[in-house]
Amino acid sequence: MKLGFTAEQERFRTAVAAWLEERLAGPFAKLRGVTDQVAEAKARLAWEQELGRHRYAAIGYPERYGGRNATLDQQVIWAEEYARAHAPTRLGHLGVELCGPTILHFGNEAQRQRFLPPIAAGTEIWAQGYSEPNAGSDLSNVRTRARLDHSPKGAEWVITGQKTWTSLAQFAQWCFILCRTDEGSKGPKGISYLLVPLDQTGVTIRPIRQITGEAEFNEVFFEGARTAAENVVGTPGDGWKVAMGTLSFERGVSTLAQQMAFRNELDALASAAKANGAAGDPLIRQRLADAWIGLRIMRYSALRMLSGGAREGALSGPAYTYKIYWATWRRKLGELAMDILGPDGELAAHPPYEYENMPKMFLYSRADTIYAGTNEIQRNIIAERALGLPKEPRGDR
Amino acid sequence: MQFAFTEEQALIRDTAHEFCAEHGDPGRVRAAMDSELGYDEATWRAIGQEMGWTGLAVPEECGGSGLGLVELALLQFEMGRKLLSSPFFAGSCLATPVIRLTATAAQRQALLPAIAGGTTRATLAMANRRGQPGLEGIGGTLSTAGAGYRLSGEAGFVVNAHASDVIVIAARAPGSTGAAGVSVIALAAGTRGIEVERVISMDLTRPVARVHFRDVDVPREAILGEPEDAGAALERAVQLAQIALASEQAGAAEETLVITTDYVKQRVQFGRPIGSFQAIKHRLADMMVLVEAAKSAVYYAAATADEATPELAEAAALAKAYCGDAFFNCAANMIQLHGGVGFTWEHAAHLYFKRARCSSTLLGSPTYQRERIARLMGLDERAAPRATTGSRT
C-alpha cells in the first residue's frame, strides 16, 4: 500500500491549484461555491469552455480528443483541487463523465472523433435520457421506441416516447437515450443506446419543479424526433450492456470530486455549529464526528476502488456498496444540518422560496437515495450480485 | 498512490486465512475458551514459533521481520474472523508497540527478541479498574521511593494477564494529568507485589484480569525510557493497538456476513430459502455496506501508521469507532437472522456478539473515539468567521 503522491504529482497539484485560483476571478469569481445544478447556468457554460480551452474539461480523455491523457492519480488530484477551490458544479458532467467514457469504450472511431472533442471543449452539453414514467427502478422496462427510416437523405432513427428526470436537458444540445429498437421486445433485450440532438421540432422539454422549488430535472417528449442512423453506440439492440457500462463509470474518479464538495458542506456545517453554539452540545458533537468519520471512509473506499480492484479480487466490495453508502451519508448530513440550524433553517432566505445552501441540501439530499438506483435497488443488487442470494421474482415475465 | 495490498501482503493474508481456518475451527475455539489457560497451546506455538507472526512487526535488530501495521492488521483480520484466542493480541498488538516506542535500545534488546520469538507472553496493563480509556484512565501510580520507585494502584481489563510472563504497565506520577507524568514499566509477572485477579468477561474468547500493584518496588532499569516522559509515545502506541483491534473487528464482522449469508441460502421456510425474502436480503446488504466501510477504515489507518502521516490519530480513532459499531451491528444481525438457533449457547452467534460488545469498549468505545474526533475537527476552537461556501450563503 502506498498512500502518498510522488513529487511530480505534487507539482501537478500545485500547478492546477494555481490555475484554478487564477481563473476563478473576474467573470468567474461569482461561480465560487455554486453547488447547485441550475444556478448561474450562463456563466457556468462559459466556465466549461474556459476549462475546455485549457484541456481541463475532460483531463482523462486521450489528447487527440481534447483531453490530457491524465493518469488516475492526476485525475484524483484534479478532482480534489477543483473542489478545494470551491469551483462550481460542472454543467458538462453528464457528457464528460457518462456519455464520453461510453463512446470511448463502446463507440466507433467516427463517433469518438465527432462527439468527444466538443465534450472536452465544453461546447456541447449532454443530458441523460434513461428514466421513463414506467421505467424507474425497473429501467429495462423502457418503452420509448425508435425505428430506422430510409429516406433519400439517408437512414435516420425516428424516435417516439417520453423520458423523465432528465437532468440538465434545458441546457443541453444532445441527449443519450435508451430506447427500444426491436419491435415487440421486452426487458433488457432489444434496447439501443442512441445519441439524439435536442434542438429539433420533434423534441419538447418541460421542466419539473422539484422539492427545492427549483427545476433541475425535465420531462422530454420525443414525437418523431430524428437522429442519424450512425448515432447508435454499440450494436443496435445491445444497448442495455452499453448502459450498464455507463453506470459503472458513475463510480469513477468523479466520486472524489463529489466527496470534496461534501467536505465543503460538512465544514460549513461545523462552522455554523461553532457559531451558534450547537458545537457544545454532546449529541451534536457525536453526530458531527460521525459525519466526519463517514466522509473519511467514503474517501478511503473510493481510493480502494480506484486502486484497481481488478488485480486484487478482495478489493472489489466497495464498488457494490459505494452508492448506498454516500447517498445515505448525505441524507443524514441534511438532517444534521437542520438540527444544527434549528428553526432558523426553516425560513426562506429570499422570496418566493429560495433557501440557503444547507437547508437546500437537506431537501435535495432526499433525491440522493432515489436517483441512479434507489437504496432499495442497491440492496437488491448487493444481495443478489455480491452475496449471491436468490433473485427477486418478477410479476410480468 | 496505490491503496491496495502488495503481493507480499496478499500472501500474508492468504496464509493467515488458511492457518486460521485450520486452527480456528469451532471445536478448538470452544475448547480453548473453556480451558483454564484460555487458549490452545499448539496454536500458540504455531503462531509464535512456526509462523513467526509474533515477530512480524518487530524491528529486525530485535529479532523480528520488521514489517508494518498493514501486515499486522491482516493477521488480526484473519484471527478476528475465527475469534482465535491466543497471547498474540496482548503481546504483539498491545505490549510490543508500547515497548517499541518507549524503551531505550538496550531495553528493546532485552525485551523484544523473546516476545518476537514467541517464547515470552506479554501484555499491557494501562486502564484503571473501570477500563477508562486514554491517558486520563491510567490505573497505576508510580512514586519515587528512596533511590528507586514504587508502584501502586491497579489496572483493569488486562488482556491475558493470567497467562503472561511480562506485564508492561502504564503509571502516573501522583497528581499528574494529561501527557505529563506518565511512565511505562516492564516487569515480570511474578514480581513481588503484583497480583493477578482473574475476572470473567462476557467475551469468554478473550480472558481479562485485574492486576493489583501492592507497593511494588520498581528498579530504575524497569522503567522504559525516561521516567514520567512516556505520555506521547504511549498515546501513539495505543493508536497502533487500536488499529490492530479495529482490524480484528472488521475481520470478525466480515465473517458474520459470510456465515449468515450461507445460512439464509440454506434455511427454507414458506417453501423457499429465507434468503430470497427482501427483508432478509436487505439486512445482509446493509451488513455488507458496514463491512466494506470498516475494511476501508482499517486499511487506511494501518497505511497511515506505516507511512507515518500526521493523520494517524484521526485514522486510528475513526477506525476504532466505525469498526466497533459495524461489528456490533453485524453480530446483532447474525443472531436475528439465525432466529432461535442464533440465541443458543451451541451456536457461534453469541460468541461474535459478545466479542463485538467487549472489543468495542476495549481501548476506548465508539462514543469516546467520536468525542476525540470532535476535538480533532476543531469543534472547541473559537468560531471562525463563517466560511464562504456558497454564493448565496
Describe this structure in words.
The complex is a heterodimer of chains A (397) and B (393). Chain A is α+β, with helices and mostly antiparallel strands and 397 residues long. Chain A folds into three domains: 7-91, Orthogonal Bundle (Butyryl-Coa Dehydrogenase, subunit A, domain 1), CATH 1.10.540.10; 127-237, Butyryl-CoA Dehydrogenase, subunit A, domain 2, CATH 2.40.110; 251-386, Butyryl-CoA Dehydrogenase, subunit A, domain 3 (Up-down Bundle). Chain A contains eleven helices and eight strands. Chain A has helices spanning 7-23, 41-53, 72-84, 93-106, 109-121, 239-249, 254-276, 282-306, 317-341, 357-368, 375-386; strands at 126-129, 145-151, 154-163, 174-180, 191-197, 203-208, 217-228, 232-233. Chain A has a four-stranded mixed β-sheet. Chain A has a four-stranded antiparallel β-sheet with strand order 2-3-7-6, with no helix packed on it. In chain A, α1 (7-23) runs parallel beside α3 (72-84). Chain A is globular, with a radius of gyration of 22 Å. Mean pLDDT of chain A is 92; it is low at 309-315. By secondary structure, chain B is α+β, with helices and mostly antiparallel strands. Chain B has three domains: 7-120, Butyryl-Coa Dehydrogenase, subunit A, domain 1, CATH 1.10.540.10; 124-228, Butyryl-CoA Dehydrogenase, subunit A, domain 2, CATH 2.40.110; 232-376, Up-down Bundle (Butyryl-CoA Dehydrogenase, subunit A, domain 3). Chain B is built from eleven helices and nine strands. Chain B has helices at residues 7-23, 26-34, 41-50, 69-82, 88-102, 105-116, 231-266, 278-306, 312-338, 349-361, 366-376, and strands at residues 122-125, 140-145, 148-159, 166-172, 182-188, 194-199, 208-218, 268-269, 272-273. In chain B, the strands form two sheets. In chain B, strands 1, 2, 3, 4, 5, 6 and 7 form a seven-stranded mixed β-sheet that branches. In chain B, β2 and β3 (148-159) form a beta hairpin. In chain B, α1 (7-23) runs parallel beside α4. Mean pLDDT of chain B is 95; it is low at 385-393. Classes of the chains: A alpha+beta (397), B alpha+beta (393). At the A-B interface, α7, α8, α9 and α11 of A face α1, α7, β9, α8 and α9 of B.
